[in-house]
Design goal:
Length: 506
């Protein structure tokens, strides 16, 4: 191979590492809530590890000290745990490569940078950028201070020592080879060549001892024995620098796989303006984790048989980087909504029931006034009417309210004073004083009474529904009566009775 070509040697084969145990990592920066794009990256890594009996490592890239916050870290880790993306090594799961926080690894980066300096592959740079005093002091990735203009590279060891003794601050820059090509061999993007002459002598260690991203990432990926780097394709442009660093150290680079960006349906970048972008927001909107996981896995990947609904186990089984195309993935929230409704319908009702409490609470009600059985019954009755847990909770709100407001169209259509003014007292008596408060018996009682009155059963059924729920549509009314319970049924029918009495006077 031409000696001016710097590359990762990967051939386009996922199994090129032969006997090596697969090790992948997700390396978020705790500078915000977990974005769906980052989550998708984490998920692809996790699925890849799962499929290949590998290890999934969580590494926290917290070198941006100003923007990194513990609350973001906690929230991101909570999101991952919520989704079932547990890590084999990382915070809380110490392994042989601990610590997993970059700010706890500064000594390691410093040693590695020194090594490159000793080998003349990096050098101290004392130049100050224009805004000295700020974070950029000592030239942080500033093109102007790049290899074209900076002469610090030519300083002798003695000169460097002298300048340091005088108290001058220095960063360490990589001495990028002057020409040639950095060829990134990527599993998804193919071979992507970069012209090295356009790459400046970039900073690897800032004057405050903090490594830059490109440097820390290769030191860590190497030391943590990462075999595959699967990450968003916004990092592809960083990769030639990383390839150069791997070459400088003589380390074997990992296999790179840059996964396509996620766009909105209108092909714009996923942004807050279009709606939710953080995993947390989707949870708050009542999406269940099974649907989110399934949906996110299909953002830029599809199983060979094009199945759309896959459990976590099925996803692991089917996952392969082969199925990841080069083109962007499109975030179709309608599809997510559809998928969510499928999961709400098919997940065991106990599971859905267990997750309802926070949504009931958000509506301002105390969820604990109902027991577990009540929730399970209500889920079975109402789940086909709700695409999200929020909608499900909204449908159930009437069972937590003191009173309900009636749908005006329903009032007009079903609250007929000429029938109900006289029928209501007896109806209330019969449905609440029956010995057996069951669906079957309530149905028999209501139908029997309608028959006695010489009216169709609907003339009683619709008003009962409206009285309990305030709405004209609901699951089968006798089920709803039982769900309301005897006491609530009584008070709702009494309220309707008074309402109808007033109607009659108008
Ligand atoms: N901390 C980087 C990010 O959050 C990680 C990039 C990488 O995976 O190399 O984008």
């Amino acid at each position: 191979m031409n000696e001016n070509i710097f590359t990762n040697q990967n051939i386009h084969d996922e199994n090129q590492n032969g006997e090596k145990t697969i090790r992948v990592r997700f390396a978020p920066s705790p500078t915000g809530l977990l974005h769906v794009g980052s989550f998708r990256t984490a998920l692809f890594n996790w699925l890849f590890a799962g499929k290949n009996n590998g290890s999934f490592i969580l590494r926290i890239e917290d070198t941006d000290r100003k923007r990194s916050k513990d609350e973001f870290l906690q929230s991101q880790m909570a999101d991952m745990k919520w989704m079932g993306l547990n890590w084999d090594e990382g915070p809380g799961v110490e392994g042989k490569h601990s610590p997993y926080f970059q700010t706890q690894r500064l000594e390691t980066y410093s040693q590695h940078a020194q090594k490159l300096v000793e080998e003349n592959k990096a050098y101290y740079c004392f130049c100050k950028s224009d805004d000295s005093g700020s974070e950029k002091e000592s030239g942080e990735d500033n093109e102007k201070q790049g290899k074209q203009t900076c002469s610090c590279k030519n300083l002798t060891k003695d000169q460097v020592n002298e300048l340091k003794t005088q108290g001058n601050q220095a960063c360490i820059r990589f001495a990028t080879p002057s020409e040639g090509e950095a060829l990134v061999r990527d599993l998804i993007k193919g071979d992507v060549p970069f012209d090295i002459s356009l790459i400046e002598n970039f900073v690897i260690l800032k004057s405050d001892g903090i490594p830059t991203y490109n440097f820390a990432v290769i030191v860590d990926d190497h030391l943590m024995e990462i075999t595959h780097v699967i990450r968003g394709d916004e990092h592809l442009s960083n990769t030639p620098r990383q390839v150069l660093l791997y070459n400088a150290f003589g380390y074997e680079p990992p296999v790179f796989a840059h996964i396509p960006i996620i766009l909105n349906e209108d092909r714009t970048k996923l942004s807050k303006r279009h709606g939710a972008v953080h995993l947390l927001e989707f949870r708050d909107r009542g999406y269940v984790k099974e649907a989110l996981l399934n949906f996110m896995a299909l953002l830029g990947w599809a199983p060979k048989d094009n199945r759309e609904i896959l459990t976590m186990e099925e996803l692991v089984e089917a996952f392969s980087l082969d199925g990841v195309p080069k083109h962007p993935a499109v975030f179709d929230e309608k599809k997510l909504l559809w998928m969510n409704s499928q999961y709400i319908m098919t997940l065991p009702p106990e599971i859905i029931a267990e997750r309802l409490a926070p949504f009931i609470e958000k509506l301002g009600f105390n969820p604990s006034v109902k027991d577990a059985d009540w929730y399970i019954t209500s889920v079975i009755l109402y789940r086909e009417r709700a695409k999200t847990l929020v909608e499900l909770a909204e449908n159930l709100a009437c069972f937590f309210q003191e009173t309900v407001e009636y749908d005006p169209a329903g009032v007009k259509k079903h609250f007929k004073p000429e029938i109900l003014r006289s029928a209501m007292p007896e109806l209330i008596k019969r449905v609440t004083e029956t010995d057996s408060f069951t669906i079957e018996n309530l149905e028999a009682v209501v139908r029997q009474y309608a028959e006695e009155l010489g009216i169709s059963a609907g003339k009683l059924i619709h008003p009962i529904r409206l009285a309990i729920t305030g709405k004209t549509a609901s699951p089968p009314v006798f089920d709803v009566m039982v769900l309301a319970g005897k006491e609530m049924l009584k008070s709702r029918l009494q309220a309707a009775q008074s309402f109808i009495a007033e109607l009659a006077q108008e």
